Amino acid sequence: MTVTSDAPAFDESKYHFDLFLTVGKHGGMASNNTTIVKSTGKLTADVGTITVKGEGVELGDYAMESISKGKYYYQIPSSNDRFVKYQIKDKQVIEVASCPFKANTYKVRAYSHTWIDDNTLLVMSASGDASKVLWSKLNTANMSIMAEGTLDIPLPKSEVEGETTEKFSTSGILSYNEQAGKLYYFYFGKNGVSGRGGKTTTQFYTAVLNPSDLSVESNTRNSMAAEMAGSAYGELMQNSVMYDESGNLYLAAFTEAKDMEQGYLLRINKGETDFDPSYNGFPTPDGKLLTTQYLGNGKALVYSRNDAAGTTIDSYSHYYSIVDLTTGERTRLSYNGKEIAYSGGRFSQRSVVFNEKAYIGVNTEADTNAIIYIYDIKTGTVEKGAEVAGEFFFDMIRVVEND
Q1: Largest Cα–Cα distance in the chain?
Q2: How far apart are CA 325 and CA 222, in angstroms?
Q3: From CA 27, how far away is CA 257, in angstroms rounded?
Q4: Residues 33-42: contacts with CB under 8 Å, at least 24 apart
């Protein structure tokens, strides 16, 4: 959300922040820990320490991983039987409308999504046996299914000796490039191992789709990285796709090397169907690239991991950087001339870009509370904002319109 010099002043009072906190340990990715949401109008230092004791809203049967737009959230609840539109207000979760599944069925957390316009939401996921990719197009104004079908792509041939590809990756990453007028779906193949996971058998593919009927216009194996970030649950929690002013698409990806998961920031130039082979916006990685958000003027905020410092979900090995997308140069987020220490929480999205500022939550080992830093995009300055009570695990932040 950017304010130009000839635009009226942006009214931040029409929005609020929703902070998602978990009890016991970090949430996300099928965690069964209790998630509580705290709404607040601002995150500056004068707010003090934010707590959810007696003030937050328990999500209950709803997952932390969700879709948000305007003043509403959308998701598939734990009942796995419908699409739901709801609000978090008046210290409760209020279901506004729902839409039962038709032919295509989906599971909580296990789907990808993108918005084609303000009221058209496209959801996509592998089927129950992961033998095909399903899609459903929803009208969120009245919560109805406009169309649904199966994506016309074959299981890719295995590239791993002794293994066969028997299923698609769970969710893939789906994104609509508004300037190009095309959908991009990123996916890969896996072996037939039952249960959670399974072995990846191919480099990931890019299917370019017509947004009107989901017909496949091209389907290309990428040659630069193995997997996309967030491939199991789309962008329900973490941002792995972004666009610049020219309509170029950027995707966070990685490849398992000998000593680490090597991060990449790949680019598909506007109008193209495959990645630019000369471009990697995340050179000399020290680990996996987890999230990426565009800041404007050729810069991005990324959340990545130093694998040498730890690779578990709760390892204090994650950090934020500002990346120059032209040169690939990245600068660790700093405050008062000192780099901010490593943060815990692999499955987190504690950063949001709002009205020319980035609000960035950090959960370090040394600090009792999580701290929110506010990065001014125009000046590059960083101020210390509110804190989040340390007895809770701060995992996600969203900006929501007031009712």
Answers
A1: 62
A2: 20
A3: 27
A4: 33/393, 34/58, 35/59, 35/63, 35/64, 35/395, 36/392, 37/88, 39/88, 39/89, 39/400, 40/16, 40/386, 41/13, 41/16, 41/17, 42/12, 42/17, 42/386
Burial of residue 35 (CB within 10 Å: 0-12, 13-18, 19+) is: buried
Residue 301, SS3 per DSSP: strand
Alpha carbon of 2 to those of 153, 245, 312, 349, 363: distances in Å? 38, 12, 36, 21, 28
Q: Which residues contact 35 (CB under 8 A, 6 or more apart)?
A: 20, 21, 22, 23, 27, 58, 59, 63, 64, 395
Q: Is the pLDDT of residue 5 over 80?
A: no
pLDDT in tens, 24-72: 655 554 555 688 999 999 999 999 999 988 788 999 889 999 999 999 9
Closest CA to 120 of 99, 147, 100: 147
Residue 117 confidence (pLDDT):
97
**pLDDT for 31:** 55
Give the chain's mean pLDDT: 93
Separation CA 264–CA 281 (nearest Å): 7
Average pLDDT, integer, range 8-13: 88
Residue 1 confidence (pLDDT) above 50: no
123-137 exposure pattern, b = at least 16 Cβ within 10 A, e = fewer: bbbbeeebebbbbbb
Nearest to 352 by CA among 385, 401, 394, 397: 397
Task: Kindly state the tokens that stand for 346.
Answer: 């692999």
pLDDT at 227 over 70: yes
